[in-house]
Amino acid sequence: MSDTTEDAKRALRAELRERRQLLSAHAAESAGEQLHARLDELVGRGDIAAISCFLSTPFEPATRAFVEGAVARGIRVLLPVTRADGLLDWAVATEDGDIAEGLFGLPEPVGELLGPIAVNDVDLMIVPAAAVDRTGMRLGWGRGYFDKTIGSMEGCPPVYAVVYDTEVLDEVPSELHDQPVTGAVTPTRILEFAPPAA
């Protein structure tokens, strides 16, 4: 990684993290309700039997109500569990599933772990992001878990990043290992990005 790109990523992440922390509780709650509706709309667009999603932290666009609703409707939801080797295990979300603090203090499910390849069976991936740009490039939070996962999948399903509306940018700094996403879901819209030219 070039020092210039690394510095640009670090600075942008810090700015985005600070913006999220300044969001009022009312604004965050309202955005979470809107996001829930957009995610339901996304899942309703196709024949979706299984998805992967993540459990949001207090400073991320809220996904927990969506996950609970999807499970209640009979959709199989895989939730990520971080591993020390940089890969993700997966656990099936349940209506009364326990949540604990994971490797980096993130909320993660407690229960039987499925290996990294379990995600190959989902019809749709919903991933966290700090920002996305209008070409579909995703800026993550710097640990590379989702870039590794997406980059290693042979038949990768559609991947949508969850961000606030102000986090859809003209451009984000990126490198070769960074993986683009199919689209983004914000509280007010679902965006589709054109696939990169071959």
Distance from first to last alpha carbon: 24 Å
Count up the helices.
Answer: 4
Question: Which class of secondary structure composition applies to the elements?
Answer: alpha/beta
Shape, per Cα inertia axes? globular
CATH class: Alpha Beta
Relative strand content? 15-25%
Q: How is the largest sheet built, in terms of strand order? A: 3-2-1-6-9-11-12
- Full CATH superfamily name: NagB/RpiA/CoA transferase-like
In the predicted model, the low-confidence regions spanning at least 5 consecutive residues are none
Radius of gyration (CA) equals: 16 Å
Into how many domains do the coordinates divide? 1
Classify the fold: give the CATH topology.
Rossmann fold
If classified by CATH, what would the architecture be?
Answer: 3-Layer(aba) Sandwich
| H-E string | HHEHEEEEEEEHEEEE
For the sheet with most strands, the description reads: 7 strands, mixed
| E-strand count | 12
General description of the model:
Keywords: ATP-binding, Ligase, Magnesium, Metal-binding, Nucleotide-binding. Pfam families: 5-FTHF_cyc-lig (PF01812). Belongs to the 5-formyltetrahydrofolate cyclo-ligase family. It catalyses: (6S)-5-formyl-5,6,7,8-tetrahydrofolate + ATP = (6R)-5,10-methenyltetrahydrofolate + ADP + phosphate. GO terms for molecular function: 5-formyltetrahydrofolate cyclo-ligase activity. The strands form three sheets. This protein has a seven-stranded mixed beta sheet with strand order 3-2-1-6-9-11-12. A three-stranded mixed beta sheet has the order 8-7-10. Strands 4-5 form a two-stranded antiparallel ribbon. With 198 residues, it is α/β, with parallel strands linked by helices. β7 and β8 (138-139) form a beta hairpin. The chain has helices at 3-22, 25-44, 64-72, 145-152, and strands at 50-52, 76-82, 88-92, 99-101, 107-109, 124-128, 131-133, 138-139, 159-162, 168-169, 183-185, 190-192. It has one domain (3-192): Rossmann fold, CATH 3.40.50. The model has no long low-confidence stretch (mean pLDDT 92). It is globular, with a radius of gyration of 16 Å.
